[in-house]
């Protein structure tokens, strides 16, 4: 009788866990042994499949939204492509450049290329929003604290480099070439070649402005030490000064400094941030 009461009491305690089938009463010196419930492997496999299926579905949905956003922005920029091209042409026109198309469809293809590049640039915030929301649940608090400021800083620096190139570096470079060709040749440019040159400069400056991000990654991953990178500061200044002297149109030291100073400042800014984070 005592054994039956004990069994009923144990069954009542385990009722909420649905594990009656794991109970195996054993008569051994008037004691009952209850086997511990085992984890069902099939349940684990099903949960893994559901989790993987959920992540794949989320990735597909977010990718679809990004692609739709990019396509819509490309179409929008194509509708105003002539206005965009006119804006880019102003720096060339100020240097008395003239533009031609060397084939019947060159202006159309150039407009389409400009639309694609502008559409991709405008879609960067949307793309980053979906990427961050997708990977955020899988990151620890420490990783979020480190990676997301780097992520955001990289975007800000890239667009800062593009703006610097558009308003400062590219006009100075065009002025240099214009002065060099003066009284020698008449400058008539293919519209496609002009934009290829311009966008290459924009991209190069956007990448060059990633110097602080690269420094932080290298120092934090212990590829190079902070002290070693700091010891190279003299070579960095010399290199950027020579670069500024080459690409500026005159021997004016103010103009050269205005060209080379941003990269020097970014180098020391990257060192300062890497030491503090």
Spatial sequence of strands, sheet with the most strands: 1-2
Q: What is the β-strand count? A: 2
Helix content: over 70%
- The value of Rg in angstroms is 32 Å
Tally of helical runs: 11
Instruction: Give the averaged pLDDT, no decimals.
Output: 77
Q: What series of H and E elements makes up the topology?
A: HHHEHHHEHHHHH
Strand content of the residues, in percent? under 5%
Which class best fits the helix and strand makeup? Answer: mainly alpha
What would you call the shape? flat
Distance between the termini: 70 Å
Low-confidence segments, ≥5 residues, pLDDT <50?
A: 1-31, 33-41
Largest sheet: 2 strands, parallel
Please give a structural write-up.
The chain is mostly helical and 277 residues long. The model is unreliable at 1-31 and 33-41 (pLDDT under 50). Strands 1-2 form a two-stranded parallel ribbon. It starts with a helix and ends with a helix. The chain contains eleven helices and two strands; from the N terminus they run αααβαααβααααα. Helix 6 crosses helix 7 (191-208). The protein is flat and about 65 Å long. The longest helix is centred in the middle third of the chain and has 40 residues, at 141-180.
């Amino acid at each position: 009788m005592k054994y039956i009461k004990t069994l009923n009491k144990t069954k009542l305690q385990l009722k909420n866990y649905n594990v009656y089938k794991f109970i195996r009463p054993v008569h051994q010196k008037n004691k009952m042994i209850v086997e511990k419930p085992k984890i069902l492997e099939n349940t684990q496999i099903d949960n893994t499949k559901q989790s993987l299926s959920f992540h794949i579905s989320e990735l597909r949905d977010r990718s679809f939204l990004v692609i739709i956003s990019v396509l819509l922005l490309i179409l929008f920029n194509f509708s105003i492509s002539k206005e965009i091209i006119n804006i880019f042409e102003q720096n060339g026109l100020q240097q008395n450049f003239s533009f031609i198309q060397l084939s019947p469809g060159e202006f159309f293809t150039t407009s389409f290329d400009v639309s694609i590049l502008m559409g991709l640039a405008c879609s960067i915030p949307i793309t980053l929003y979906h990427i961050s929301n997708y990977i955020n649940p899988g990151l620890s608090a420490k990783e979020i604290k480190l990676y997301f400021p780097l992520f955001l800083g990289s975007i800000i620096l890239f667009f800062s480099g593009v703006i610097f190139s558009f308003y400062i570096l590219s006009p100075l470079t065009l002025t240099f070439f214009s002065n060099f060709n003066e009284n020698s040749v008449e400058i008539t440019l293919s519209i496609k070649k002009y934009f290829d040159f311009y966008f290459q400069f924009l991209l190069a400056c956007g990448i060059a402005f990633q110097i602080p991000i690269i420094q932080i990654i290298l120092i934090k991953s212990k590829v190079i030490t902070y002290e070693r990178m700091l010891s190279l500061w003299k070579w960095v200044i010399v290199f950027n000064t020579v670069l500024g002297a080459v690409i500026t149109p005159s021997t004016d030291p103010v103009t050269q400094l205005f060209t080379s100073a941003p990269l020097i400042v970014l180098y020391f800014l990257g060192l300062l941030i890497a030491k503090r984070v």
